[in-house]
Design a protein that fits this description.
By secondary structure, this protein is mainly α. It has eleven helices and two strands; from the N terminus they run ααααββααααααα. It has a domain of 198 residues. One of its GO terms (cellular component) is plasma membrane.
Length: 293
Amino acid sequence: MGAFAQLVVDGLAMGAVYGALALAIVLVHQSTGVVNFAQGGLAVLSGYFAYTFLGLNVPLLLAILLSVAISFIMGALIERFIIRRFEGGDMHTTVVVTVGLLTLATGIAGWLWSYNNLRLPSLFPPDFFRVLGVSISWRSFGTFIVIIAIMVLLQLLFQKTRIGLALRAVADNPRSAAFSGLPVERLLMVGWGLAAALGAVAGVLVAPRLTLTPGMMDGPLVYALAAVILGGISSPVGVVVAASLIGILENLAAVYLPFIGHDLKIAVPFLLLFAVLLIRPEGLFGRKSVERV
């Protein structure tokens, strides 16, 4: 029983990492209507920004805050000068552009900082504490608390604030939002900036758990996309629950299902995804879309 509980706790910790990136994807979609595959690349760049500031003897917390601020500006500029050129056209074209931005971001990171493994310190101590015989690291616990806090803030942003409602209106129908007097172009920039800032948080949470490399977000991005589809792209709460479920199930399957093991555990979220979408195509917590004709 102790080993089972340990696997669940470790799965929750990894699920929190997937959830951080999944929340950034949800934020872009909720505010712009675009599924942003470039989110992983922007998160990688934010990790390198923080690493560079640390090299200039900037305190860790300030280095992270600066990287988040730079990521916000970078996200807004990407929307203004790149994504906006494709708005109003085929949505699939915009998605392909975000894939290209992902490749560009990781290439820039490798060119500027090399492809060597680098170490980014964590905000949380590496020590462990025990609860009911289960070892929990402060790093995993801190990451989980941060993701829960971000999830609650995003839910409040989109449900209770004027800017959140305005972002949703722009994503649903930019033309009607413009006729209503909303500053559509500025809101789109804000949406991309907020998502890039959230991606920066994901980057600085993931880098200490792994190592800082240009491709460090490739695996988490796959799991994050699975969590977005499984939980429902319209629900911040849903994607965090789905990400946690993915983290737990892949850990349990790797240990208790010998024919899967650690090599094939990446297939677990997709098998779960397939099973859920057969019953509920909009995801566990997603809303059914209704179109008037």
